[in-house]
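Quick one - first record:
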Amino acid sequence: MSHASSNGNSNGAARIRTKPKKAVRGQYHLRLFVVGHGPNSKQALDNLLCLCQKHLEGRHTIETVDVTKDFAAATRDNILITPALVLVKPGPRVVVLGNLSDPKKVLFALRLPVGDA
């Protein structure tokens, strides 16, 4: 249940990719960290559900973690900011912070075709 991204560099330097990797047509496992039922948490979940319905219908699992009830899950995944979306599968793992209100950026991060977002 983590939201920290691993960039694979031993020196801690961030790696920036200008093009998304080719989208994987398999099952997506997404983990959304929220705090209670606050407006940003609700907006993030609503935006994620809409995005999944439109772009991942039948190919996704959403796990919602309320950090007020399961703080240990957030610490295991190095999540310090909510809302935070973690792409668990397919790898590599990706973390998207915020209420997911920009569908093009979220699709890009999830390596899905942006098209008519």
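second record:
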Amino acid sequence: MGIRVLESTTMPCGSTCNRRSSKRRRNSMDVLGLEADPGRPKIPGVPGFWINAGEGGQIHLIGGEQPSPLAKGPGQDPTIPHVALAVADIQETKAELDRLKVPYWSMTGINGPTAEQIFINDPSGNMVELHQVDQCRCRIANRV
């Protein structure tokens, strides 16, 4: 069956964000003509900002020390650089991962009270986040 991916969000920063955030913000806003998302939730111990990229995407620049206060253990830190994909239904996605015997870990409440994020690693060790499309600020309709 496979997981139904609808959109993507990029998380390309990491610990260098602390030292370069003003340059990254200026590059994103002045040079590329993108706007910061003023609705980014305050995440204690996790500095950064989100940049709106059209109607269906965002770039999340995340900084802070590693491991972050959100880390659940080694390799389970949602602030390390990763790609995020929006899926149609998070429960359906978890069922498919279980069926395929793909290990994952999850967090709820970071981006919203009921927003669940699932994290997997591809065979090369790259982390991928999966979240439900109507539970994130990625889509412009969800930013109001």
